[in-house]
Amino acid sequence: MLEVSSAIRGLVLRNEASADWAEHMHRSLSALPVVRESVTHPMLVRIWELHNNLTPYDAAYVALTERLQAEYGGQCVLATADARLANSSAVVCPTELLIY
């Protein structure tokens, strides 16, 4: 939740999103069904494999999405507002670029 809040703040500070939109998004955060996931050894290996193209934070989202894809038979997508991440050639899992 804090990372989402930080991203929303950055959008507002760069005048890429309105204060009203940010307020709405913050109110909506509490309604999200959040599940905390642990970083496993295989995920750490995958995160390191991606180190030339992605930050460890972005690579963790990719590794988690790949793991969930395997666990849920392909019913998982990496949703991000980060166009650089969504368009990275290193990302092989399905992605959805969120437009705000």
Can you give me a brief rundown of this structure?
By secondary structure, this protein is mostly helical.
- Beta percentage is 5-15%
First CA to last CA: what distance? 18 Å
Helical proportion?
Answer: 40-55%
**Low-pLDDT segments:** none
Q: Globular, elongated, flat, extended or rod-shaped: what is the shape? A: globular
SS-derived structural category: mainly alpha
Write the element-wise H/E pattern from the N-terminal end onward.
HHHHEHE
- Describe the largest sheet: 2 strands, parallel
Q: What is the tally of helical segments?
A: 5
Description:
The protein is mainly alpha-helical. The protein has two domains: 1-34, no CATH class; 38-100, no CATH class. The chain has five helices and two strands. α1 (2-13) runs antiparallel to α2 and α3 crosses α4. The two termini are 18 Å apart. The relative contact order is 0.13. The model has no long low-confidence stretch (mean pLDDT 91).
